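Continued from yesterday's entry.
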Amino acid sequence: MVAEGDRAPDFTLPDQDGNDVSLAGLRGQTVVLYFYPKADTPGCTKQACGVRDRSAEYDASGARVIGVSPDPVDEVKRFADKYSLDFTLLADADHAVADAYGTWGEKSMYGRKYMGVARATFIIDPDGVIARVFPKVSPKTHDDVVLEALGELGAASAA
């Protein structure tokens, strides 16, 4: 997994509307990049709706939130539409970006092993450097943890 202080791996992926989004195109902005396993599953829905419900707080912090899953564009679109998600979701169908960030790997559920995305969040500073890493973040506490970190980073940069 990439670590704090590393340069964030660049990528270009399609969003829920099929438009390409690149990390390089977001330079100058703080980016909250979160990886989630599968659209429209209970934990992922809780996490995405939390971001939606607290979008004003993310906006106030100056951060752009982007969710990434290994789902194809059509599934990401259905997920965004179903829950009125008003932020960018990206389709990483070949999991290349998840690989680059170290979130793709072996998982286990009910004794069955399979490959998938491990839930993780990265705060990327305006220069494209990983400022914070939250591995195995809980959907229930995701927004509290990330918004607190954004506040700390904002206070540090203002000082």
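--- second protein ---
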Amino acid sequence: MSNRKLPMYEIHGNHEEMGEQLGEACREQTRIGIANTHQLLQEAYDFLHLTWEGAQIQARKYMPFAEERYPQYVDELKGIARGANVDYDDICVLNAIEAVSQDALHLTKCTSMAVNQERTANDHVLIAHNEDWLPEDEDDVYVVLAHPDDEPAFLAMSYGGLLPNVGFNSEGIAQCCDSVYPTDTRIGIPRLIVSRAVLAAKSLSDAIRCTLVSHRAAGYNHLLAHESGEIYSVEVSAHRFAVFYGTDGYLVHTNHYVDPKMLEVERDSDELISTRVRYNRAERLIRQTPKHTIKTLQAIQMDHINYPNSICNHAVEGNAMDRENTITALLIDLTERQMLASWGNPCMNTYHTYSLTT
């Protein structure tokens, strides 16, 4: 087991200042993230027919929608570019890559779970998330402790110049995001900017409304939890949504739509088999334990059934379109306002604890 620990960067101020601080602190990670995305597009050119210059042109089309609705998060992107001393257009490509690639990157990406007080041994609300992405970006992962002037403080994971979105805030709201593949995508607000806005929510209804913002380009599945034990999963596309409530004290989601109406707009369902296997496996495991702890959820995060496309993902071989790995595993104790994170696969790396201080 490796004991390496994800770096944490603390940022303060207005949104432009926070972005600049983050870009400066993560200059190397941001540049590596850009280089990795360059390489991805080069490897996938025969399929996507998209150059880096073409990706920049496409990304620019999305930014006016983001500027109109969320100028503060566009300021964060501009600040990241300035702090990292990279092109703003490059940062836009990173943060709109799913849109500009037309969702052709069928990385199955991520497993999310949540259990409330009814399902835990110590009456805490716990959330678990495995972030599956390109193996090359494992070196770019970090934790952000943010204190915005005008929004709740938050603790979140990010990597390679992306806006943070998977984490929790001082209002007791946590979010995990799982990629899904709708057919009704459009030019609009990029998904990462939509999910960044959720970290500013002060109530669950605010968080859900953020996921459904008008003129969104598409959507994720947003697994949302509140410190009270209320748990929701919101499946989103550009035009549709479905809301699930954690009636039994738990929720699980991976990378396919579950709601029948959302399945009507799912792209290439026949290619999304491993996500369904992971979903069923995670739900079975979470049901088997009546009272969960940090350790029991970590055990699920390390599960290798259907290896290498398992919950603990090791699918590092293959072409650019489907190569992936669990680059970090996160476990949030929302009651304690803490996040535990492994740097890389949780089966090979120890968890370290990060706390939200307000």
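Residues 111-355 form a domain with the Penicillin V Acylase; Chain A fold (CATH 3.60.60.10). Residues 107 and 322 are 5 Å apart (CA to CA). Will compare against the first tomorrow.
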